[in-house]
Amino acid sequence: MTLSFKATRDSRVENSSTLWDCKSTRRIPMMKSTPGSVLFRWVLQKIRFDRDLKWRTGVEIVPIQSTSSNGFRITAPALEEAFQLAQACNLKVKGLLVTNPSNPLGTTLSRKELDLLVNFINKKGIHLISDEIYAGTVFGPAKFVSIMEVLQKKILANTGIRNRVHMVYSLSKDMGLPGFRVGAIYSNDQSVVSAATKMSSFGLVSSQTQCLLSAMLSDKKFTKKYVAENKKRLKSRHAMLVRGLKMAGISCLESNSGLFCWMDARHLLRSQTLEAEMELWKKIRDVVRLNISPGSSCHCVEPGWFRVCFANMSEETLNLAIQRLKTSVDTISFGKDSNGFSHKSTENLITKYSVSKWAFPLSRYNER
Ligand SMILES: Cc1ncc(COP(=O)(O)O)c(C=O)c1O
């Protein structure tokens, strides 16, 4: 594949990657964990990791906290704090899980952060799982660096660390093929590869899918062009959303990848609490009729951040969504009155939207 995994071809290790049906992120914890053990994760993680990782394995997840004060970057004290917290809860720490690029932030980990992670797991003797499913969405300016690239450049003789770093990937995001259910695990640990190979028999990729993908991915010219065009379009969509939100007085965390923006709506909250965040989320859902994800669903402890997806809709729909948000911010005074919202202006907003084409056919249907 002509995606960004240049460093993953390690000639010293054979069979170090294995292909299987998706949810690759679930597999390594399943193979490497026992109930009671713990996996850290970078606090801002994709919404469904709790479901993907905890339910079947019995592992506990201890979030590593990060906040807007440093652009939600990973720091050494935050890593150490999470480790200490896990130990204080009598949990045996098995590994650290990160997504790079991040869902929900839409940012790539810097080389400094990646170094920090490798040094940390080296010191603690634990595993590192890097979920790089958005690697091909990086539209700049900062470049994507795979954990395997960092590992290759480091002098880590006799640490055994190479066997403790695993990378997961799938075609769902970069190639826009979530329905194909094709993912991969890259690991130098033969026990991981062997267990993965055995488990893959429960979720084999169909021959037809393999045949189609093999033709598609071996066409280097096509994949290169596809990924480049995808990045170009994501960049333009991202700029469109950021510009639109800015006009509505809302800023976003500076980002360079992913299919979403991390929107800062702290100023729209009635109070700086997670309850107020849920209140705002419900208003955005019920009144503005947009479904965005509250930060708390990604374990963000700082209220007022929301993940806004921009890639799974037409440009026209995105424009409409921006317009709705802009109008609602202008019209209703989020959080300015004691109830959080002005009823009068909310009614105005509903009346205004009801006459438009995109007014609520479903809610009208429900009222019958
Ligand atoms: C960071 C991350 N990892 C893994 C997945 C799972 O993707 P899939 O199972 O569709 O390949 C997602 C999907 O949202 C994701 O955001």
TrEMBL record:
Transmembrane regions: none
Entry keyword annotation includes Oxidoreductase: no
Family annotation (PROSITE patterns): AA_TRANSFER_CLASS_1
Molecular functions (GO terms): 1-aminocyclopropane-1-carboxylate synthase activity; pyridoxal phosphate binding; transaminase activity
Domain Aminotransferase class I/classII large stretches: 49-325
Keywords, comma-separated and alphabetical: Pyridoxal phosphate
Similarity comment text for this entry: Belongs to the class-I pyridoxal-phosphate-dependent aminotransferase family.
PANTHER family: 1-AMINOCYCLOPROPANE-1-CARBOXYLATE SYNTHASE 8 (PTHR43795:SF81), BIFUNCTIONAL ASPARTATE AMINOTRANSFERASE AND GLUTAMATE/ASPARTATE-PREPHENATE AMINOTRANSFERASE-RELATED (PTHR43795)
Record-given protein name: 1-aminocyclopropane-1-carboxylate synthase 8
